[in-house]
Amino acid sequence: MQFISIAKSLPQYNESIHDWFASHVAKSLGSCIVEKKSINHHYCMPTSYSIALGTYIERPGVAVPIFYRPGKSIFLFETDKSQSWGINLAGEDKILIPHG
Q1: Could you state, in order of their start, the residue ranges of all structural domains in the chain?
Q2: Taking the CB of residue 86, how many other CB atoms lie within 10 A of it?
């Protein structure tokens, strides 16, 4: 139970780190406004009986970024449950998105 409790607290900790980093980047750019925030956790426990390592979980039909390498384009693709990465968690259709 302690593992589950710690693992479920990591996304909140990760979001705090992302917010801190974004605020420092915004300060260095001068007048920068964040209009929309989206954090995809590459380690989480979406349910008490499942772990996502090196992937994040998204709903079907959502556009997600794929990063290739520094200096290259960032590609967006729409998640599709008919693809092989579709799973069902707690009765809901989800898509596993690999990290990088």
Answers
A1: 2-98
A2: 14
